[in-house]
From TrEMBL:
<dbReference type="GO" id="GO:0022857">
    <property type="term" value="F:transmembrane transporter activity"/>
</dbReference>
<feature type="transmembrane region" description="Helical">
    <location>
        <begin position="332"/>
        <end position="352"/>
    </location>
</feature>
<feature type="transmembrane region" description="Helical">
    <location>
        <begin position="12"/>
        <end position="32"/>
    </location>
</feature>
<feature type="transmembrane region" description="Helical">
    <location>
        <begin position="358"/>
        <end position="385"/>
    </location>
</feature>
<keyword id="KW-0472">Membrane</keyword>
<feature type="transmembrane region" description="Helical">
    <location>
        <begin position="105"/>
        <end position="127"/>
    </location>
</feature>
<comment type="similarity">
    <text>Belongs to the major facilitator superfamily. EmrB family.</text>
</comment>
<keyword id="KW-1003">Cell membrane</keyword>
<dbReference type="InterPro" id="IPR020846">
    <property type="entry name" value="MFS_dom"/>
</dbReference>
<dbReference type="GO" id="GO:0005886">
    <property type="term" value="C:plasma membrane"/>
</dbReference>
<feature type="domain" description="Major facilitator superfamily (MFS) profile">
    <location>
        <begin position="14"/>
        <end position="496"/>
    </location>
</feature>
<feature type="transmembrane region" description="Helical">
    <location>
        <begin position="304"/>
        <end position="325"/>
    </location>
</feature>
<feature type="transmembrane region" description="Helical">
    <location>
        <begin position="474"/>
        <end position="491"/>
    </location>
</feature>
<feature type="transmembrane region" description="Helical">
    <location>
        <begin position="229"/>
        <end position="250"/>
    </location>
</feature>
<dbReference type="InterPro" id="IPR036259">
    <property type="entry name" value="MFS_trans_sf"/>
</dbReference>
<dbReference type="InterPro" id="IPR011701">
    <property type="entry name" value="MFS"/>
</dbReference>
<keyword id="KW-0813">Transport</keyword>
Amino acid sequence: MDQTHTDVPHRGLITLSVMLATIMQVLDTTIANVALPSMVGDLGASADTINWVLTSYIVAAAIMTPVTGWLADRIGRKELFIVSVVGFVAASMLCGISWSLESMVLFRLLQGVFGAAIVPLSQTFLLDINPRERHGQAMALWGAGIMVGPIIGPTLGGWLTESFNWRWVFFINLPIGIIAVLGCAAYLPSIARRLRGFDFFGFAMLSLGVGALQLMLDRGGEVDWFASVEIWIELGLAITGFWVFIIHLLTAKDPFIDPKIFLDRNFATGLVFIFVIGVILLASLALLPPMLTHLFNYPTITTGLVMAPRGVGTMISMLIVGRLVRVVDARFLVVTGLLLTAQSLYTMAGFTPQMDSYLIISSGVVQGLGLGLVFVPLSTVAFATLEARYRTDATSLFSLVRNIGSSIGISVVTVMLTRNAQINHAELSAAITPFNPNLLATSPAAAAGDPAALAQLDGLVNAQALMISYVDDFKLMMLVTLCAIPLALLLRKPRLAPAGAPAAHMD
């Protein structure tokens, strides 16, 4: 049945219920990372194999995300959302009682399968229940959960692991999930189902491409990338899957995803932008905790406290921009956000091992402000000119591209960090010889070959080489951010419906 935005009851309770489920799912992408060392002994795993706990979840979620639109049409959005949340919580409980690595990987696979639909459906619901002129505020709230979740995840995971047990990283989902399910069951409106055929071949090819790519990106660092046959096989499967899917998309009579969705310029440009946001957001989050731990010797809780202001900056930015997007050109907000993000990365490119936490906090706040200014207008404008019937497919693609961007960003900066650290160490060490007058002046014992002095000197060289590598990564992300600015010119300013007018229908 058709239902306009003006007669959607309990909008606030729907929003609360949907966002609780969303935050729960997003938290699980990072909350388990810090608990991995504690899992090793309990699950009988090794330091290498324990990473499958993360890999299984990422790959399963990536494969199942694109099918969200079809499933929502087939069984109903409300029904799919409730099933997803219940399944996710049940899988979380099973993860918490895992007795071996194999059982944990299996339950994490289930967690990824059920959790994949939560984020795209939550975005669809918030767009559906709000009139066009309030989409900016709705996307500000949704974006706050999406972007702040990964930031607080490691801190919360570290606290739960240290204070209780690593199993509580999963058990914490139970109370949140129960509240979310009860709220959704009571207040989410039922929407008419739309039967459409399932393009199994298209889904299989897209799943092959996405699954192989995610597996390659996640496993590459462990098996030395292209020195491994496994990576070449995964690359070949990824290229084959995507290539066949694209050909099938353009030639099939009833493809898995309607190609007309990509003809909307705002949506197509939005996909490119959200890819860049995925690279910057999670790549910087992947770099900072190990940097603070290894170079600055911060404990887990302190690392979380130092990074928390980044989330505060994001929240402030989104609260402001949710209202600004109605009166200020979204393209101007996006460009301003990218410039602020680039400025923060420029500041981070000046980090040194001797600095205090002020620069880390201030650059984090600026980056949070910048990413918030980009994310909200982008999430609003990307769907502003898109037909409502494409919305669920579009939100699933939006989430998929953001996740792929995050995986690629993390892989690239991690590879660069490792390789550059080796190169920098070799270059710095080459200048340390007994004939160097600076060495003779600063450490005569090292120049004389004293083992203790040489070990101390090697530690300093390692720290400087690693710091230079982090700086190089921050510079790369700054250039990526600046290169994305011209894309804002491709966005079109949507015409907002008059206040109170139903801009679209919940179909």
